[in-house]
Amino acid sequence: xxxxxxxxxxxxxxxxxxxxxxxxxxxxxxxxxxxxxxxxxxxxxxxxxxxxxxxxxxxxxxxxxxxxxxxxxxxxxxxxxxxxxxxxxxxxxxxxxxxxxxxxxxxxxxxxxxxxxxxxxxxxxxxxxxxxxxxxxxxxxxxxxxxxxxxxxxxxxxxxxxxxxxxxxxxxxxxxxxxxxxxxxxxxxxxxxxxxxxxxxxxxxxxxxxxxxxxxxxxxxx
Length: 222
Ligand SMILES: [Zn+2]
Ligand SMILES: [Zn+2]
Prior knowledge:
The protein is an alpha/beta fold. It has a single domain, classed as Alpha-Beta Barrel (TIM Barrel). The protein contains 9 helices and 7 strands, in the order E-H-E-H-E-H-E-H-E-H-E-H-H-E-H-H. Helix 1 packs across helix 2, helix 4 runs parallel beside helix 5 and helix 5 crosses helix 7. The longest helix is centred in the N-terminal third of the chain and has 19 residues.
């Protein structure tokens, strides 16, 4: 049972597989449900969402797997996160995630809280040196926080896990896959336990929280 809400296709510019091939490979890797969330900002949102949705709808209908088309708002000015998220929703994005303040890149400070507070972002990806205050706000607003399987971002996973747990916010494990770095059940376990969390946390992070997000995306999860 593997869920992943952060995958990149060639529409991202820095990833290699076209959306349909990416979807095919994810299904073969055992994914039960997933989202393709390509990098976008204000100018690219309409094109990326339109092209991605067409391919995702094709793969979803022909292969019968719940796949969602979204964007990862990436390096947009913190003051413009809300505007870009609105554009993405208006363009038909089914899920909106925001590229958080990873320690691996010079993301503008203030991006985390802008994403959490705008009310249009489902998942804050790799939030880096997340503060307890921001985690509390994420808990209040139902924004999911990410433990990244990608090594460069995973440097901060221990802190993200501790702060999120303290604030009682919801965690997900995502791959941030740009090629063949798909998640597996073993990899998900390793990310959760490696971040300092316990066996008792596994079910919430790897099943309960993904199912909650899927319901929000409109999927009837039994
Ligand atoms: Zn990328
Ligand atoms: Zn990403």
